[in-house]
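Write out this protein's structure.
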Amino acid sequence: MISSQTFVLTIKYRGSVARQRGEYVARKPAKMYRQVKGQSFTRREYTGGVPNNRILRYFMGNRKAAEAGDFPIVVELTSDNACQIRDSALESARQVANATIRNSAGVDGYALRIHVYPHQILRENKQATGAGADRVSQGMRQAFGKNVGTAARVLRGQTIVSIHLNPENYDAARDALRKASCKFPTPCSQRVVRGAEHLKGKV
């Protein structure tokens, strides 16, 4: 019988041959982690090797003006369903939304904020993949698994992203939030929480 530790699995991946020692190659799809199941698992002091958070910044733009209330309009992106959003999806949404609104409003003409933090630790029971791998990596049922990433647990109606801006940049902010919502594993809604009187005919 071949030992799983010495077994070298040859896998064709994206046109090239990669030699892997019993480990998976591709990242698992987000649909495996988007459902909220069981109790929350967040205590990092009890588990080692938690991957670093991918979100670089939570505030972009003119934060001082936003905290002082200088922007008359606030637009929020809220989730329509309860789900888990991985840190890579939050970072991707932050980048595309920030680039879209910054091109229209300038560096100091807006303030964007990410409201959720990926506390939830995601685990996966890593096994070998490919032809013949089922003979050497049956695995234990309901295994605890190893840490592979983090995600934010979001409730229905919870705010994920908000943008403070001036009335002339409202259309760009809506487009920025629309692009950000495409990165999340749940339908999202936009709402104007402050300054609707400055947007006559648009709201």
